[in-house]
Amino acid sequence: MTPQTIPGLAAFTEEAIAWLRGVAAPRTESVWGVGSDSVAVFENWTAEQEREHTDEISRYEQAKFDAGWGALSWPPERGGRSLPLSYVLAFRRAEESFDVPRRTEMFSVTQQLIAPTIEQWGTDEQKERYVRAMLRTDIIACQLFSETEAGSDLAAVRTKAVRSEVGTWTLDGHKVWTSGALVADYGVAVCRTDATVAKHAGLTMFLVPMNAPGVTIRPIRQMTGGSSFNEVYLDGVELEDTYRLGPVGKGWQVALTVLAAERLDGGNLGLANADQAIALAQNLGRELTEIEKDKVADLVTRSYLQRVSTMRVAGAMLAGNEPGPEASLGKLLATDTMARTSEVARLLLGRELTADSGRWGTFAWSEHALGAPGYRIAGGTDEIQHNIISERVLGLPREPRP
After folding, report:
1. 114: which DSSP letter?
2. CB proximity list for 367: less than 8 A, separation 6 or greater
3. Which of the pair, 103 or 56, is modelled with greater confidence?
4. pLDDT digits 0-9 by tens, 225-279
5. 39-79, pLDDT tens digit by residue?
6. Does residue 107 contact residue 57 with C-beta atoms inside 8 Å?
7. CA 146 vs CA 78, 173, 232, 243, 263: distances in Å
8. In terms of Cα–Cα distance, which of 266, 227, 271, 230 is closest to 371?
């Protein structure tokens, strides 16, 4: 696409807003006390509700894709418009002003983590089969990475994939903390295929159909009451070699592609709920104390700082750089914002945070307070982010791998 075919950013934004007006109401028209007051970090849904909400979001994402707004930076053969990242960010800003279905984690995993990874590492047949379908959310994907024994050391996974004489693979192992496993069509699994080499060199990645014989999903009940996470057991799951993603022994490199995208996507975590906590302070129905005013002002300031950090990540990407330290800083700011959002809600609500008074916008915060600490682990622990910053910004030595 030549520069002459790219619309001006202002005209593009106006066109985006016009389309959004046709499918959703502006958020400015929302009234405090009307609609859902959910601020859950991890949704407390039944399996039926998770499927219902996933289908609702998919319908919106499919309409957006079909109208030319869903894969803006992708080439036309993938359903996109080959537009710069600045246009993607402009559409996201416009979209935030409308009451569109709130995307769950599965959609960012599918569209922004897995689809680009398949585009980079997949065969031509895999790209043709999966990428466009994932961008349109006809296919939903999840990550089969974490294992109880491996902790934050992804390269220490024990799930095995053994190749037969005819070239098929048999997978055996146990994955944990898998979001969306019950609604996902495929899981991207990192498996050990060679135990005789260094742990980072003996891994291979696979696309696992979640309905394949031998795949068992068991929800994990959380202290919020919900089951956003799942255990996934792989017991003798047989796959054709066409489900292998990337070369044999290159699973670590493929996994890094997913993880890099995950860190880039974490900058906006928690901002919507921070805004909701600020709105709570404005609609509390009483004068705030000086301490409460100070805490709310601090949250406003830190949420703006997080947004600036997100823009720095975007700026690094626009410049063609890999924003490793910027993305790590953004993740740390996000988890800090979430913690301070819980603190503000607790300070403003007191016992209404833990005892349901029936008043809109109060007891719902209990799920946020219980769920927010989980993001200090999800998407790379705080300690991992600190290590990245210490190595790439402060120049501290890296510990040698065993």
Report:
1. I
2. 38, 39, 40, 41, 42, 44, 224, 225, 226
3. 56
4. 777 789 999 999 999 999 999 999 999 999 988 877 665 555 578 888 999 999 9
5. 988 877 888 889 999 999 999 999 999 999 999 999 999 99
6. yes
7. 30, 11, 10, 20, 16
8. 227
Mean pLDDT of 286-308: 94
First to last CA, the chain: 47
**pLDDT value at position 396?**
82
Classify residue 225 as left (phi > 0), alpha (psi -120 to 50) or beta: left
Distance, CA of 390 to CA of 402 (rounded, Å): 20
What residue has token string 């906590």?
Answer: 277
- Indicate the helix (H) or strand (E) that contains 235: strand 229-239
Contacts of 151 (CB under 8 A, 6+ apart): none
Asked if residues 301 and 278 have their Cβ atoms less than 8 Å apart, the reply is no
Distance CA 385, CA 326 (A): 10
Q: Kind of pairing, strands 169-175 and 186-192? A: unpaired
Q: Which residues pair with 98 in a beta bridge?
A: 26
Q: How far from the centroid of its chain's Cα atoms is residue 199's Cα?
A: 27
Q: What is the pLDDT of residue 266?
A: 57
Alpha-carbon span 105 to 50, nearest angstrom: 12
Question: What are the pLDDT digits (tens) for 4-50?
Answer: 478 899 999 999 999 999 999 887 766 788 888 889 888 778 888 89
Q: Could you tell me the pLDDT band of residue 320, with boundaries at 50, 70 and 90?
A: low
Lowest-pLDDT range of 183-197, 340-354, 388-402: 388-402
Which residues are within 8 A (CB) of 385 and not within 5 positions of it... i.e. 6 or more apart? 328, 329, 331, 332
Q: How many CA atoms lie within 13 A of 361 on its CB side?
A: 18
In order, the DSSP letters of 331-343 are: HHHHHHHHHHHHH
Print burial letters for 307-318: b (CB count within 10 Å at least 16), e (below 16).
Answer: bebbebbbebbe
